[in-house]
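Dear colleagues,

For the upcoming journal club I promised to circulate an example of a predicted protein-ligand complex. I picked one with adenosine-5'-triphosphate because it came up in last month's discussion. The inputs are reproduced below in full, followed by the predicted structure.
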Amino acid sequence: MTTTIPYPATVPAAEPIILAEGLTKIFSSSKRTGRFRRREHETADFTAVDGIDLRVAEGELVGYIGPNGAGKSTTIKMLTGILTPTSGVLRVAGHEPQRERVRLARRIGVVFGQRTTLWWDLPLKDSFALLQRLYKIPRERYLANLAHYTEALDLGPFLDRPVRQLSLGQRMRGDITAALLHDPAIVYLDEPTIGLDIVSKHSVREFLSDLNRRTGTTILLTTHDVADIERLCSRVVAIDHGRVTYDGSLDELRADRDLETVVRELYLGRSLVDTTE
Ligand SMILES: Nc1ncnc2c1ncn2[C@@H]1O[C@H](COP(=O)(O)OP(=O)(O)OP(=O)(O)O)[C@@H](O)[C@H]1O
Ligand SMILES: [Mg+2]
């Protein structure tokens, strides 16, 4: 008699490095109604992220795009653990961001283009030294990374200057370095090219492309710049009113029209692909 060893019906695939299912964020704000002593509190709910499904494999560089107020930054804040989802499943590098924020911090890097995470009054290099301590980056690795980013992002001329004295482009390059010194597996970049001049934009783009290719770092990039998407993203996820309106390849997106037209349509809220199937 022969014994057959049953195979599992499906071979479990490796979990994506970013996994969101039905991710939702509802902001509640209380507003006062009524006059004087008869004031009552009424709550108004606003759904900023409305049931997003997202799977990103290790090493992908994904463009996360959509019009102002679509819910992009809110999503990124949930992915970092800054904001707690109202509902849904969320796992990043195997961690639940809101519950394991400190452990996750070692695996992720974040750049919010609109805001610096550096110490305003400290010279740039002192901010980096503090980050080395915070993340407990081994000295040799820290020095090698610092030397690499100083060269690649041309930080040398302003490493000794306080952050508050840096131009926007210089500060952004400092912020990008700060997000990468601890070799994160995933980097979220929320508008890293905002306000940069053409040459700086170009060098940031080339830098990110090289980082992704050389180290396999997974990158989720938010931008309103079509050239960033064109240069960097093979995959695009578009959202509007907190919902995914497109998730697919860049090539498919611009198969029969130029990218600018397609992006404009996406921003006007026209779903190009039926995602309900
Ligand atoms: N803390 C908050 N409380 C209440 N509403 C909020 C809060 N944060 C964001 N929102 C609202 O949620 C919606 C999504 O905001 P979010 O910042 O995620 O948009 P975005 O896609 O990043 O837009 P932009 O392209 O302008 O950066 C907006 O309508 C915003 O006003
Ligand atoms: Mg935003």
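Two points we might discuss: The chain has one domain: 59-267. Residues 1-11 have pLDDT under 50 and may be disordered.

See you all on Thursday,
B. R.
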